Amino acid sequence: MTSSRTGQLVSDDYAGYKKSFKDEGVTELGCMVHARRKFVELHIAGKSQIVGEAVQQIRELYEVEQKAHPLSVEERHRIRQQVPDGTAIAKALDYSLNGWTALIRYLEDGAIPIDNNWVENLIRPWALGRKNWLLAGSLRRGQRAAAIMSLIQSATLKGHEPLVI
Fold it and tell me: Is the pTM of this model over 0.90?
């Protein structure tokens, strides 16, 4: 027999509610007090150098909520939307959130770099000249130019200065 329960439940991470969220159509709503408590405990114990910032950010959320409390539901919703859809900052945040799993993967392995900016900087001159090189004259000349550019950048990566005569 399946239940037709639906609705929303604000709760901590109590395992007893998980079946309702998974099987019964109840929407899980997180409790900010429970999340905050974990940060406050670390802050009090002095076990993290950055946890104070998290506590401050959550405090600011509560300040917004306190000001919004007497307002209508629609006004509260509008105030909570600090970044309007379609704006440049919303697009930047969406890019980061959509790729979050991949963005934080460097945390799992000390050998993984945080970015590939060094590669981007190495290939920038070639990327900027790409349209000009369409006029290399032939496929063979283009391939030869690509091989020379790869050799130059490989030498540069190994600490050589191949352009110095």
Answer: no
Average pLDDT, the chain: 84
Which of 33, 63, 86 terminates a domain? The answer is 86
- List Cα–Cα distances, 90 to 27, 31, 54, 96, 163, in angstroms: 25, 25, 21, 10, 43
Q: Report yes or no on 131 lying in a domain.
A: yes
In a domain, 97, yes or no: no
Q: What is the pLDDT of residues 37-47, one digit of tens each?
A: 999 999 999 98
Structural domain including 34 reads: 7-86
Question: Is 26 in contact with 5 (CB distance < 8 Å)?
Answer: yes
> How many domains does one find in the chain?
2
